[in-house]
Amino acid sequence: MLKYMTNYFVRTLREDPADAEVASHKLLVRAGYIRRTAPGIYSWLPLGLAVLKRVERIVREEMDAIGCQEVHFPALLPAEPYQKTNRWEEYGPTLFTLKDRKQADYLLAPTHEEMFTLLVKDMYSSYKDLPLALYQIQTKYRDEARPRAGLIRGREFVMKDAYSFDIDDEGLDRSYELQRQAYQRIFERLGLPYVICEAMSGAMGGSRSEEFLHPCAIGEDTFVRSPGGYTANAEAVVTPAPEPVDATDVPASELRYTPDAGTIADLVALSNEKYPREDRPWEAADTLKSFVVTLTHPDGEKEVVNIGIPGDRDVDMKRLEAALAPAEVEIATEDDLADHPELVPGFLGPQACGPNSDQRTYDEEGNPHGSIRLLLDPRIVDGTAWIAGGNKQDHHVYNLVMGRDFTADGTIEAAEIREGDPAPDGSGPLELARGIEIGHIFQLGRKYAQALDLKVLDQNGKTQVVTMGSYGVGVSRVLAAMAESHHDDKGLSWPMIVAPFHLHVIAAGKGDEIYSTANRIAQAVSDAGFDVLYDDRPKVSAGVKFADTELLGMPYVLVVGRGLRDGVVELRDRRNGTSHDLPVDKAIEEIATILEANRESNQ
Ligand code: ATP
Ligand code: MG
User: Phi/psi zone of residue 182: left (φ > 0), alpha (ψ -120 to 50 degrees), beta?
Assistant: First the structure.
């Protein structure tokens, strides 16, 4: 394929778009690959579309190689299947919903588990039809709370979503493993470094779940790794609970006057001054911090919850949100606490909450009422003693012992993970890093098949609910992640495997001979089976053309210019800045040889 700059549909911009913070976003817009249409919604221009297709090709080839078959669903779907699985509610405001002219509910699909389940139910009825794996590459819609970084977190984006169907757990394990290996090959072929992390299953439900994170400073995900090989998304890290401690020697709890102790640091300083302990000074880790949040459950119901964590740690909102999903979490306001006059804002302690409160009652199903729920960090084990809010203005309670003086409704992973915290599997101290989630694989189990009644007959003629997996790659996000890892301050710098053109030819200088030679080489290299962009613009300076080659980022650049007098043209490598002269009469052959040898290069 040969395209001429004079009529190719591209305009480069000098300035970064005002709303862009990360390099991939700035450069993809400036180089004319994408155009913003609305927040988190982008139009694809020819250059962008060419890269997108190349990324899709790799994904397709690896899906096809494991026997996964391609289908294609609509993005616009009826609400009913999503109501049956409860996701119509669980997705909350992230779901784009709409009505048709008859007032029937529709949605723009955020992911397609329901549709695949129903399709298989429609067509299959026997274990002999299984295992089965299907996929699509398709546009997804999510009204993200914080669309960000261009294609990295869009509200419309391209996803490859695959689904597996098996009769039993062993089958699901095999299907999951096949997908996992295909993902490894996809990211290896693209040359995109990745870490496989244990993940939370979130709104998907199900059991085993791993994320493929591309380590990158601008990534939104924090992940941990240990020297012994444990890797997990910070959201999924389970705090190892210490052994209970013996509290027989801890004095009875005591309410003490603590004026001006607005922060944990003030409280610790005041405690050491006014109420020193004999064995050692008080520390932040001796205090129990109450963090009161208001949940909005999928059915719209609001609930205030007290989250208790050791005072030397901060709450990690992402971990807290993940732990409480699908409920939405906000920090409680004074208004939210208006129904609970017994709680003193700023001095709230566990004794007034959860099972400890005299307001607490239980209904027939054992659901708690009256007092707000109390969920505690797993480090708060039986026998540990704390300084906590006294539920009285300017007072704290000392020597409040878990299990003796208070209990909780349960534990919660809300506290931040710190560098050096122990890995849950005992494999050493954790190290923290950031990454972009580029893929996610889940064992869904029977949740969707159950809800939508996907059953087949097994070997004994008995009906069995099918077990499923779901496997996503963020195709447009992968493209952005590649731009993020392949650029410099002048522009993009694509590896051959995804570059929109293999070769960018420029006519640098005046005179018919330069243009006709450039044209002849461009044509011949294109005829040899490569994609070539020829900058034939007659009135544009060589300097502007050079700058455009750097911004657009094709891996090889051929400069046809002054050297022609000496019978040479110059082949540059955009990726490492090297260049060398080629004799004009051998140029076509040599370029074709180099391009062919590097066709699938991911460097
Ligand atoms: P995230 O945690 O980043 O919101 P998710 O866990 O909700 O993602 P999945 O439902 O697992 O995402 O979707 C599969 C893949 O689709 C993700 O691994 C990611 O690569 C991609 N993806 C998800 N949301 C977006 C988005 N808003 N924009 C671009 N790609 C996305
Ligand atoms: Mg995910």
Answer: alpha
Q: How far is the CA of 8 from the centre of ligand 2 (A)?
A: 37
Residue nearest to atom 6 of ligand 1 (CA): 440
Q: Whose CA is nearest to atom 25 of ligand 1?
A: 153
For tokens 């992968």, name the residue. 478
For residues 468 and 243, the answer to whether their CB atoms sit within 8 Å is no
Closest CA to 408 of 476, 309, 328, 329: 309
Q: How far does residue 437's CA lie from ligand 1's centre (Å)?
A: 7
Tokens 């990726």 correspond to 575
Digit-coded pLDDT (tens) for 47-101: 999 999 999 999 999 999 999 999 999 999 999 999 999 999 988 899 999 999 9
By DSSP bridging, strand 532-535 and strand 503-507 are parallel
Contacts of 521 (CB under 8 A, 6+ apart): 505, 558, 560, 569, 587, 588, 591
- Name residues whose C-beta falls within 8 Å of residue 18's C-beta, 6 or more positions apart in sequence: none
Q: What is the radius of gyration, based on Cα positions, of the chain?
A: 30
| Alpha carbon 394 to chain centroid, angstroms | 43
The finding on whether 357 has its CB within 6 A of some atom of ligand 1 is no
**25 within 8 A of 149, measured Cβ to Cβ:** yes
Q: For residue 429, is the peptide bond before it cis, meaning its omega torsion is within 30 degrees of 0? A: no
| Under 8 Å between Cβ of 496 and 597 | no
Q: Which pTM was predicted?
A: 0.90
Output the residue whose Cα is nearest ligand 1's atom 12: 440
pLDDT tens, position by position, 399-458:
999 999 999 999 999 999 999 999 988 999 999 999 999 999 999 999 999 999 999 999
Q: Which of 135, 190, 222, 440 to mutate to test the pocket of ligand 1 (most atoms within 8 A of CB)?
A: 440
Tell which one of 448, 477, 482 to mutate to probe ligand 1, the residue whose CB is within 8 A of the most ligand atoms: 477
Q: How far is CA 12 from CA 60, 95, 207, 228, 501, in A?
A: 31, 35, 47, 48, 16
Find out whether the beta carbon of 159 lies less than 6 Å from any atom of ligand 1. yes
The answer for residues whose C-beta is within 8 angstroms of residue 510's C-beta and 6 or more apart is none
* From 148, 159, 478, mutation site for ligand 1 pocket: most ligand atoms within 8 A of C-beta: 159
Task: Say yes or no: CB of residue 437 within 6 Å of ligand 1.
Answer: yes
Distance 399 CA to ligand 2 centre (A): 42
